[in-house]
Here is the input.
Amino acid sequence: MIRIVLADDETMVRAGMRAILSADPAIEVVGEAADGAEAVALVGAHLPDVALLDVQMPGTGGLEATEAITGRFPGTAVVILTTFSEDAYIARALSGGASGFVLKTGDPRELVAGLHAVAKGGAYLSPEIAHRLIAELRGTDRMARGTAARERVGRLSARERDVLALITEGLSNEDIAERLGIVPGTVKVHVGSILTRLDARNRVQAAILAYEAGLIAGGPSAPER
Here is the structure.
């Protein structure tokens, strides 16, 4: 069972999200909050698998709540609910340790898929958000970012690069283990090493670095192996 704390200041939005999530028998909403501070308190009380947070809320918003949750409750992953008009918040949410981003106006199946992926230790970006983020990266000092990313990815072993490439697909440790024919415990060790060597807080940050380094189709030229 995936246990969720849901936070949004709009009652109707929370009701809609709850209805979507309740349709999945593998998901249980264990707490609801109208602001970030309440969400942090509920996470501390319930220690859920995932906190699903609106990016903007009165008082303590989703960004501040993300930083508090990932700092104090590392066992709880954070998925951010956002809109196209809030692209500017994604970078801060990434640095705060968010593991997923889902559009409020997107397909409900994306929300459910994202929660499942993040709860299993993966990462998730709604396709529309991923495309916009990649487009933004292409337009912001691409050469310098690519050079820096290739230098960081160059610290990885060949196997760690294989694991990183699969992380970019949003796969969990179990899925990566199956794809590579190794045990999940070994994947966990590789992921920890990758995050340390890349100086990335989570799998989403690592995936972005992989794009900038050229490990994902459409990115700058890939580093030599």
About this structure: Confidence is low (pLDDT under 50) at residues 218-225. The chain has two domains: 2-127, 141-213. The CA atoms of residues 97 and 201 lie 6 Å apart.
